[in-house]
Amino acid sequence: MASYLSIDPQTLARQYTQIDRAGKDNLLSAKSKQFTAQLNAIKKLQTSMGSFLTQLKDFRKADSSLLANTASSSSESTLAVKASGKAVAGSYDIFVQQLAQNHQLAMSFDPTAALATDGEFNIDLGGSSFSVDMAGLPANAKLADLAKAINSHADNPGVSATLMRSGNETFLVISSDESGAANELTLGFTAGLDAAGADITAALAAKQELKKAQDAIVRLGSDTAISVTSASNSLTDVIEGVTIDLVKAQAAGDSPVNIKIGQDQQAIKDNLQKFIDGYNGIVSSITGDTNLKNDSMARSVQSQLRAAFQGEIGGKTLYSVGLEFDRNGKLSINSDRFEKALADDPAALEAMLTSDTGVLAKLEKTVEPYSKSYGGLLGGKQKTLQASLDLITEKQKRHDYSMELTFKRYLSQFTQMQITIAQLESSMGQF
């Protein structure tokens, strides 16, 4: 006899369990998505604020400047010039009388002759001296071994030795690493018992000066006797904020090289725009993300950042020098007001921005408590959200376990039902 009622215990158990769990599953899933989205948004905001803080600190470094200048040389083949933001616009004449040089001496040796096995080779560099013990060289030492010993000596104050060859002669060339008259080399040899030491003594006596130790000398102005000496060919303290790299010396009667320093307004705007972009990036990340727009801490960040621009700095408002906000809270530059402030008093404008009482310092104090990786406000917010997310995950695990027990209960019930139905059908089949 055919079965009037057929059931699948597994299918029914799964269906009833799914009905029981659906409501809580949806609630836990929604909470998990909410906390995950909030956590990711806060992490992104902290990263943005950390990058912005680094940018603020870079702008406020002692050797940094929002200001920028152009620099030109009338003869790049004689000297090159660079200007920092601290330079003052102007025109300057420089005559390059002499370049700085390092000291360089050469001694000729017979490459086939053995080196002395004792004695000391002495080198003095501007009052700092050291000696190479010839007995410490390898057996059957060559001139290359002496050069290596000089270069690797623990007390070497800045001397380099190398070999040069010309025809049948081999030269030991010893140079001071740094240029300048103070870095003059003095060589000597204290002979031992080995007669081969006479070769070193003879080489020293016949040494050649390839380059003289000398300072750079430049004259300032076209008709002046004012001169400046420098151990280096890179002059950084002749004109404030200007680096002059000397390339070649001029001949008597040559015209001085003219240096022009001018303000680079576009570069200054570009520097400021980087700061503005960093600020606007934080504002956009808050206003453009519903998870942050509705978050009290994120709104507080935005409010505090905006407050840093309020009031007067050095008797002027930032609006008066060209920094202004649009209706969306984004910062921008008003070119007319900014260029006028720049032309009137560039130092005052930079002070408004980068001094210890300027807007960048205010922003730095505002941003730092939020951006810290450890102990920061946004870091603490992340921990709270992560704890909430972990709690949801734990609840989901407990719910899954509870539903597993529910499934087993339903499976047992429907299996027993199937058995009962089968028994009834079997009994009815006997009539």
What does this protein structure show overall?
Its main location: secreted. This is Flagellar hook-associated protein 2. Pfam families: Flagellin_IN, FliD_C, FliD_N. It is found in: Secreted; Bacterial flagellum. The protein has 3 domains: 235 residues, Up-down Bundle (f41 fragment of flagellin, N-terminal domain); 80 residues, no CATH class; 108 residues, no CATH class. Helices cover 45% and strands 22% of the residues. It has 10 helices and 19 strands. The chain has a 5-stranded antiparallel β-sheet with strand order 1-15-3-11-12. β7 and β8 form a beta hairpin.
What key attributes describe this structure?
431 residues, alpha+beta, f41 fragment of flagellin, N-terminal domain, 3 domains, four-stranded antiparallel β-sheet, flat
What is the distance, rounded to the nearest whole angstrom, between the alpha carbons of the first and last residues?
11 Å
Low-confidence stretches: none
Structural class: alpha+beta
In order across it, which strands form the biggest sheet?
1-15-3-11-12
Number of helices: 10
How many strand elements? 19
Task: Indicate the topology.
Layout: H1 9-59, E1 69-73, E2 79-83, E3 90-98, E4 104-109, E5 120-125, E6 128-133, H2 143-152, E7 159-166, E8 169-176, E9 185-190, H3 197-205, E10 208-211, E11 216-220, E12 227-230, E13 234-235, E14 242-246, E15 257-263, H4 265-287, H5 290-293, H6 296-307, E16 312-313, E17 316-317, E18 323-325, E19 331-333, H7 335-344, H8 346-354, H9 359-371, H10 377-428
Antiparallel strand pairs: 1-15, 2-14, 3-11, 3-15, 4-8, 4-10, 5-6, 5-9, 7-8, 11-12, 13-14, 16-17, 18-19
Helix pairs in contact: 1-4, 1-9, 1-10, 4-6
